[in-house]
Amino acid sequence: MELGRPKNLKRNIRFLGRWLRNPKAVGAVVPSGRSLATAMAAEIDHDAEGAIIELGGGTGNITAALLEAGIPHRDIIVIERDKAFHRVIAERFPQVRVLQGDAANLRRLLQNAGIGKVKAVVSSLPLLSIPDRICRQIVAESMAVLDDHGVFVQFTYGPASPVSKRIAAALGLRGRRASWVMDNIPPASVWRYQRSSAALESQPPKREQDRRLHKRSA
Cα–Cα distances in Å, from 143 out to 16, 92, 217? Predict the structure, then answer.
């Protein structure tokens, strides 16, 4: 959460207003903090080819972190269903492509926009408060646009995986907690999902896993 600057405060107030109107759709009282956004951006392979799809752009904090991580504007495509948030992101990042639509129809949205290869999907959607059927569809659509080694990155405020074991098993996914972000309000964790075979190939050594799990709590 970032409250220091007038523009950030204005965006946070707008975010709170959207949450009050539809808390299940927005999922959080305040936007993702800088540390959380940076932790999510860190899960993306800069050397891989393809676009990065951001689901649920909100007020644009994740988008900002992706850009700060060195990802070119042209490689970021934000999917935002809410008209007000769509307008906020489009105004804040005029060089980033922002598509208004539902993540449950991701393949069609990207096809209509002429988006080709995708290397990562970064999601801020409140999967745990979305009906199970729709959650499965969103994750399935995300995996369908990724290549074999693509990653689906999702954060959660709860202790467990934001993608249920049942959905992960049905879609052939393997997930792991990539990092804790203790200075976010509220504290959060970032999860990384891949197809099971690709996840096994890219599993880091245990010492590296432990370092990444605790680096954000310092």
Answer: 30, 28, 30
